Amino acid sequence: MNIQQFKTRIEELFGQLLVDFHENEEYGYNNVSSTEYRTIGYATNLTPEIILQAAEQKVDLIVTHHDAWDFVYGMKERCNALLEEHHMTHFFIHLPLDYAEFGTCNSLLQLLGANIVQQSQHINGDSSIGIGELKHPVTLEELAATMSGVLEEKVFVGRNSDKVIRRIGMVTGAGNSTNQLKEAMEYNCDVYITGEKTLYTVQYAKFIHMNLIVGSHTFTEIFGVRSLVFKIQEQFPDLEIVQLNEEHNEVMT
Fold first, then answer.
1. Which end of the chain has the least Cβ crowding within 10 Å, N or C?
2. Which domains does the chain have, with CATH numbers?
3. Which family does it belong to (predicted)?
Protein backbone atom coordinates (compact mmCIF):
# COMPACT_ATOMS: atom_id res chain seq x y z
CA MET A 1 0.00 0.00 0.00
CA ASN A 2 1.31 3.46 -0.86
CA ILE A 3 0.41 6.84 0.62
CA GLN A 4 -2.15 7.69 -2.04
CA GLN A 5 -3.93 4.38 -1.58
CA PHE A 6 -3.97 4.99 2.17
CA LYS A 7 -5.38 8.50 1.76
CA THR A 8 -8.07 7.23 -0.59
CA ARG A 9 -9.08 4.53 1.90
CA ILE A 10 -9.29 7.09 4.71
CA GLU A 11 -11.54 9.27 2.55
CA GLU A 12 -13.76 6.28 1.78
CA LEU A 13 -14.07 5.34 5.46
CA PHE A 14 -14.71 8.80 6.91
CA GLY A 15 -16.38 10.72 4.09
CA GLN A 16 -18.14 13.86 5.30
CA LEU A 17 -16.48 13.70 8.72
CA LEU A 18 -13.17 14.71 7.08
CA VAL A 19 -14.88 17.73 5.54
CA ASP A 20 -16.55 18.67 8.83
CA PHE A 21 -13.26 18.68 10.75
CA HIS A 22 -10.88 19.83 8.01
CA GLU A 23 -10.32 23.27 9.55
CA ASN A 24 -9.88 22.01 13.10
CA GLU A 25 -6.65 20.03 12.69
CA GLU A 26 -8.47 16.97 13.99
CA TYR A 27 -6.60 14.64 11.62
CA GLY A 28 -3.36 14.83 9.70
CA TYR A 29 0.00 13.43 8.68
CA ASN A 30 3.55 13.78 9.98
CA ASN A 31 6.71 13.00 7.98
CA VAL A 32 4.86 11.64 4.93
CA SER A 33 6.96 9.13 3.01
CA SER A 34 6.42 7.86 -0.52
CA THR A 35 7.58 4.38 0.48
CA GLU A 36 5.40 1.29 0.22
CA TYR A 37 3.79 0.51 3.56
CA ARG A 38 3.99 -3.12 4.62
CA THR A 39 3.42 -2.84 8.37
CA ILE A 40 1.00 -0.58 10.26
CA GLY A 41 1.55 -0.02 13.97
CA TYR A 42 -1.34 1.46 15.96
CA ALA A 43 -1.80 3.08 19.36
CA THR A 44 -4.00 5.69 20.99
CA ASN A 45 -1.17 8.19 21.55
CA LEU A 46 1.92 9.30 19.66
CA THR A 47 4.92 9.52 21.99
CA PRO A 48 8.68 9.09 21.54
CA GLU A 49 8.38 5.67 23.20
CA ILE A 50 5.74 4.57 20.69
CA ILE A 51 7.92 5.63 17.76
CA LEU A 52 10.97 3.81 19.11
CA GLN A 53 8.88 0.69 19.71
CA ALA A 54 7.54 0.95 16.14
CA ALA A 55 11.08 1.26 14.80
CA GLU A 56 12.08 -1.95 16.61
CA GLN A 57 9.14 -3.75 14.97
CA LYS A 58 9.95 -2.34 11.51
CA VAL A 59 6.69 -0.40 11.25
CA ASP A 60 6.36 1.80 8.15
CA LEU A 61 3.20 3.68 9.13
CA ILE A 62 1.97 4.58 12.62
CA VAL A 63 -1.78 5.22 13.02
CA THR A 64 -2.98 6.87 16.23
CA HIS A 65 -6.05 8.60 17.64
CA HIS A 66 -4.05 11.47 19.17
CA ASP A 67 -1.24 13.51 17.71
CA ALA A 68 1.63 14.61 19.93
CA TRP A 69 -0.33 17.71 20.95
CA ASP A 70 1.38 21.10 21.10
CA PHE A 71 0.34 21.64 24.73
CA VAL A 72 2.54 18.70 25.78
CA TYR A 73 5.40 21.12 25.32
CA GLY A 74 8.32 19.91 23.22
CA MET A 75 6.99 16.41 22.58
CA LYS A 76 5.70 17.07 19.07
CA GLU A 77 9.11 18.34 17.97
CA ARG A 78 10.82 15.27 19.47
CA CYS A 79 8.32 12.92 17.81
CA ASN A 80 8.74 14.55 14.41
CA ALA A 81 12.51 14.26 14.68
CA LEU A 82 12.24 10.55 15.53
CA LEU A 83 9.79 9.91 12.68
CA GLU A 84 12.25 11.50 10.27
CA GLU A 85 15.19 9.61 11.75
CA HIS A 86 13.43 6.25 11.38
CA HIS A 87 11.78 7.04 8.02
CA MET A 88 8.26 6.48 9.31
CA THR A 89 4.99 8.14 8.38
CA HIS A 90 2.45 9.00 11.06
CA PHE A 91 -1.30 9.53 10.63
CA PHE A 92 -3.65 10.60 13.42
CA ILE A 93 -7.42 10.96 13.36
CA HIS A 94 -9.14 12.42 16.39
CA LEU A 95 -12.76 13.62 16.36
CA PRO A 96 -13.71 11.92 13.06
CA LEU A 97 -12.82 8.58 14.67
CA ASP A 98 -14.92 9.39 17.73
CA TYR A 99 -17.99 9.90 15.55
CA ALA A 100 -17.46 7.17 12.96
CA GLU A 101 -19.79 4.18 12.90
CA PHE A 102 -16.80 1.93 13.68
CA GLY A 103 -15.17 4.48 15.98
CA THR A 104 -14.07 4.74 19.58
CA CYS A 105 -17.44 4.77 21.33
CA ASN A 106 -19.20 2.16 19.23
CA SER A 107 -16.20 -0.18 19.30
CA LEU A 108 -16.12 -0.22 23.10
CA LEU A 109 -19.90 -0.50 23.47
CA GLN A 110 -19.89 -3.54 21.21
CA LEU A 111 -17.06 -5.16 23.16
CA LEU A 112 -19.18 -4.73 26.29
CA GLY A 113 -21.96 -6.65 24.55
CA ALA A 114 -24.22 -3.70 23.76
CA ASN A 115 -26.22 -2.99 20.62
CA ILE A 116 -25.83 0.56 19.34
CA VAL A 117 -28.92 2.70 19.92
CA GLN A 118 -27.50 6.19 19.39
CA GLN A 119 -24.33 7.36 17.66
CA SER A 120 -22.12 9.85 19.47
CA GLN A 121 -22.01 13.16 17.58
CA HIS A 122 -20.33 16.58 17.69
CA ILE A 123 -22.96 19.09 18.83
CA ASN A 124 -22.27 22.71 19.78
CA GLY A 125 -18.56 22.04 20.19
CA ASP A 126 -18.97 19.03 22.47
CA SER A 127 -19.46 15.28 22.21
CA SER A 128 -22.97 13.96 22.67
CA ILE A 129 -23.18 10.57 24.30
CA GLY A 130 -23.30 7.28 22.47
CA ILE A 131 -25.92 4.87 23.78
CA GLY A 132 -25.91 1.10 23.77
CA GLU A 133 -28.30 -1.46 25.19
CA LEU A 134 -27.42 -4.86 26.58
CA LYS A 135 -29.56 -7.81 25.50
CA HIS A 136 -29.85 -8.92 29.12
CA PRO A 137 -29.50 -6.69 32.20
CA VAL A 138 -26.44 -7.11 34.43
CA THR A 139 -25.35 -5.72 37.77
CA LEU A 140 -23.07 -2.70 37.89
CA GLU A 141 -20.34 -4.91 39.30
CA GLU A 142 -20.70 -7.41 36.46
CA LEU A 143 -20.43 -4.67 33.83
CA ALA A 144 -17.43 -3.13 35.58
CA ALA A 145 -15.72 -6.54 35.66
CA THR A 146 -16.38 -7.00 31.94
CA MET A 147 -14.99 -3.55 31.17
CA SER A 148 -11.94 -4.12 33.36
CA GLY A 149 -11.27 -7.35 31.47
CA VAL A 150 -11.67 -5.68 28.07
CA LEU A 151 -9.37 -2.77 29.00
CA GLU A 152 -7.02 -5.03 30.99
CA GLU A 153 -6.90 -2.48 33.78
CA LYS A 154 -8.70 -1.48 36.96
CA VAL A 155 -11.69 0.82 36.45
CA PHE A 156 -13.34 3.31 38.80
CA VAL A 157 -16.86 2.35 39.87
CA GLY A 158 -19.31 4.80 41.40
CA ARG A 159 -22.48 3.07 42.59
CA ASN A 160 -25.08 5.80 42.83
CA SER A 161 -28.28 3.79 42.39
CA ASP A 162 -29.51 0.23 42.78
CA LYS A 163 -30.56 -0.09 39.13
CA VAL A 164 -29.64 -3.15 37.14
CA ILE A 165 -27.76 -2.11 34.01
CA ARG A 166 -29.18 -2.39 30.54
CA ARG A 167 -28.89 1.07 28.93
CA ILE A 168 -25.35 2.49 28.75
CA GLY A 169 -24.40 6.08 28.00
CA MET A 170 -20.81 6.61 26.91
CA VAL A 171 -18.20 9.10 25.76
CA THR A 172 -14.76 7.52 25.51
CA GLY A 173 -11.66 9.52 26.46
CA ALA A 174 -12.28 12.90 28.07
CA GLY A 175 -16.03 12.56 28.54
CA ASN A 176 -15.90 14.04 32.03
CA SER A 177 -18.32 16.93 31.42
CA THR A 178 -21.38 17.28 33.63
CA ASN A 179 -23.27 18.08 30.39
CA GLN A 180 -22.66 14.51 29.24
CA LEU A 181 -23.80 13.05 32.56
CA LYS A 182 -26.95 15.20 32.34
CA GLU A 183 -27.56 13.88 28.83
CA ALA A 184 -27.18 10.30 30.08
CA MET A 185 -29.79 11.01 32.75
CA GLU A 186 -32.18 12.58 30.20
CA TYR A 187 -31.88 9.50 27.98
CA ASN A 188 -32.67 7.21 30.93
CA CYS A 189 -29.29 5.50 30.96
CA ASP A 190 -28.55 3.15 33.84
CA VAL A 191 -24.82 3.89 33.83
CA TYR A 192 -22.46 6.40 32.29
CA ILE A 193 -19.03 5.23 31.09
CA THR A 194 -16.09 7.43 30.14
CA GLY A 195 -12.30 7.63 30.13
CA GLU A 196 -11.54 10.48 32.54
CA LYS A 197 -13.01 11.73 35.80
CA THR A 198 -12.83 14.96 37.73
CA LEU A 199 -14.20 16.05 41.07
CA TYR A 200 -17.30 17.33 39.27
CA THR A 201 -17.84 14.10 37.34
CA VAL A 202 -18.02 12.21 40.63
CA GLN A 203 -20.07 14.88 42.43
CA TYR A 204 -22.67 15.26 39.72
CA ALA A 205 -23.04 11.53 39.10
CA LYS A 206 -23.75 11.09 42.80
CA PHE A 207 -26.17 14.04 42.84
CA ILE A 208 -28.27 12.71 39.95
CA HIS A 209 -27.99 9.06 41.08
CA MET A 210 -26.18 8.01 37.91
CA ASN A 211 -24.00 4.92 38.15
CA LEU A 212 -20.51 5.68 36.86
CA ILE A 213 -17.67 3.60 35.42
CA VAL A 214 -14.41 5.27 34.41
CA GLY A 215 -11.50 3.63 32.61
CA SER A 216 -8.41 5.32 31.21
CA HIS A 217 -8.41 7.79 28.33
CA THR A 218 -5.91 5.63 26.45
CA PHE A 219 -7.62 2.26 26.75
CA THR A 220 -11.23 3.36 26.36
CA GLU A 221 -10.21 4.66 22.91
CA ILE A 222 -7.76 2.06 21.60
CA PHE A 223 -10.48 -0.16 20.13
CA GLY A 224 -11.60 2.51 17.67
CA VAL A 225 -8.04 2.72 16.35
CA ARG A 226 -7.93 -1.06 16.09
CA SER A 227 -11.21 -1.09 14.16
CA LEU A 228 -9.80 1.50 11.74
CA VAL A 229 -6.58 -0.34 10.93
CA PHE A 230 -8.38 -3.62 10.37
CA LYS A 231 -10.75 -1.86 7.98
CA ILE A 232 -7.68 -0.70 6.08
CA GLN A 233 -6.31 -4.24 6.10
CA GLU A 234 -9.58 -5.53 4.62
CA GLN A 235 -8.69 -3.70 1.41
CA PHE A 236 -4.95 -4.45 1.62
CA PRO A 237 -4.78 -7.97 3.11
CA ASP A 238 -1.00 -8.24 2.77
CA LEU A 239 -0.52 -5.53 5.39
CA GLU A 240 0.80 -6.64 8.77
CA ILE A 241 -0.94 -5.03 11.73
CA VAL A 242 0.94 -4.48 15.01
CA GLN A 243 -0.48 -3.06 18.23
CA LEU A 244 2.09 -0.80 19.85
CA ASN A 245 1.98 -1.30 23.60
CA GLU A 246 1.16 1.61 25.90
CA GLU A 247 1.48 1.70 29.66
CA HIS A 248 -1.53 1.59 31.96
CA ASN A 249 -0.38 4.77 33.67
CA GLU A 250 -3.88 6.21 34.21
CA VAL A 251 -5.20 3.31 36.28
CA MET A 252 -8.00 4.31 38.65
CA THR A 253 -7.44 4.25 42.40
1. C
2. 3-98+220-243 (3.40.1390.30), 114-219 (3.40.1390.30)
3. Belongs to the GTP cyclohydrolase I type 2/NIF3 family.
Cα dihedral sign, 157-145-42-92: negative
* Bridge pairing between strands 61-64 and 39-43: parallel
Sheet holding 156-158, edge to edge: 114-118, 130-138, 165-171, 191-194, 211-214, 156-158
